[in-house]
Amino acid sequence: MTHRTIAALVREQAGVAWSRAKKLCIDGRVTVDGVRCTDPATRVSPDAVVVVDENAPRLRPGALPTEAIVFFDRDVVVVDKPAGVLSVADEPGNKDTLGSHVRTLLRRQGGGDTALAVVHRLDKETSGVMVFARTASAQRALATQFRDHSLVRAYVAIVHGAIDSTRVETDLIPDRGDGLRGSFGHFRRARGALPPDARHAITHVEAIASLRGATLVECRLETGRQHQIRIHLAELGHPLLGEPVYIRDYEGRRIEAPRLMLHARTLGFTHPRTGQRVEFEREAPGDFRAMLERLR
User: Fold this and answer.
1) How far is CA 136 from CA 139, 145, 276, in A?
2) N or C: less crowded end of the chain, CB within 10 Å?
3) Over pLDDT 70: what percentage of the chain?
4) Pairwise CA distance, residues 230 & 126, whole Å
5) What is the pLDDT of residue 191?
6) Which neighbouring-strand residues pair with 97?
7) 123 is catalytic
8) Which residues does the chain have with pLDDT short of 70?
9) DSSP conformation letters of the chain
10) What is the average pLDDT value for the chain, to the nearest integer?
């Protein structure tokens, strides 16, 4: 039997219009197998238990569902970041950020001290697994792991065109010659020595599945530079679907997407207190899966 969207099931079950069905999902009044699901486009298996409670408390705009916290203890908090949420404030006073919403959830769950320290970040339109430190010592330990590239970071992405598995190694600079970040010597022929602000970047790209006009890929990072995956894929001639910046050179047919089709699926690191290796994984959200289905 075909997997249907939650919105379709809610519409049928509650006997409401499409707009009302979608709003019930967005407001957090629909659960799937007991877990609140706020994405109307999420497809669920035929045997999933979908419950609609039109009187359930409405999820505040920008708030996170409880299940967004993947793991927490006294040292770290691992979060499944939704697309459309800032990792950190873009201007002073902006509290509509992942860190702010995570602190609210921790208070509600009795998670103790809600102080959080930023260790890394994801772009606003990128979804997936992130970690915050809860103590100064945890922040230092995690920052060291990010610097020495000892973490496991794997992303899934949908890119334009048919791409082969490859390894990309470049030096990224803030301005490649036209105001965009990019690889030294890619946009304009390299002249002189490597600029002092260049940052070495290595991305492993594995083609997972061929789609109509696109490819599903996995990207594993050896380094974690700003916009690294987006730049490397674009420079290979296969920009991400939904890419708003690093696509100006692409001459192929552009596929419309609701947002950047990039999801941080796996994050592994050494726990800063116990010294044990831990790894967390979350599958891509409904909008990403819906795009995959559309292109299969």
Assistant:
1) 5, 14, 19
2) N
3) 96
4) 11
5) 81
6) 86
7) yes
8) 1-2, 60-63, 93, 111-112
9) ---EEHHHHHHHHHT--HHHHHHHHHTT-EEETTEE---TT-EE-TT--EEE-TTSPPPPTT---GGGEEEE-SSEEEEEEPTT-BSS-SSTT---BHHHHHHHHHHHTT-S----EE-----TT-EEEEEEESSHHHHHHHHHHHHTT-SEEEEEEEEES----EEEEEEEES-SSSSS-EETTTSS---SSPPTT-EEEEEEEEEEEEETTEEEEEEEESS--TTHHHHHHHHTT-PBTT-SSTTTT--SPPPP-SS--EEEEEEEEE-TTT--EEEEE----HHHHHHHHHH-
10) 91
Cα separation, 258 vs 254, whole angstroms: 13
Q: How far is residue 107's CA from residue 189's CA, in Å, rounded to a whole number?
A: 53
Cβ pair 28, 36 in contact under 8 A: yes
Q: Please, are residues 228 and 172 in contact by the beta-carbon 8 Å criterion?
A: yes
Long-range CB pairs of 92-96 (<8 Å, 24+ gap) are 96/62
The letter for the amino acid at 282 is: R
Tokens of 96: 């509509």
Catalytic residue among 39, 123, 171, 287: 123
Tokens describing residue 127:
């979804």
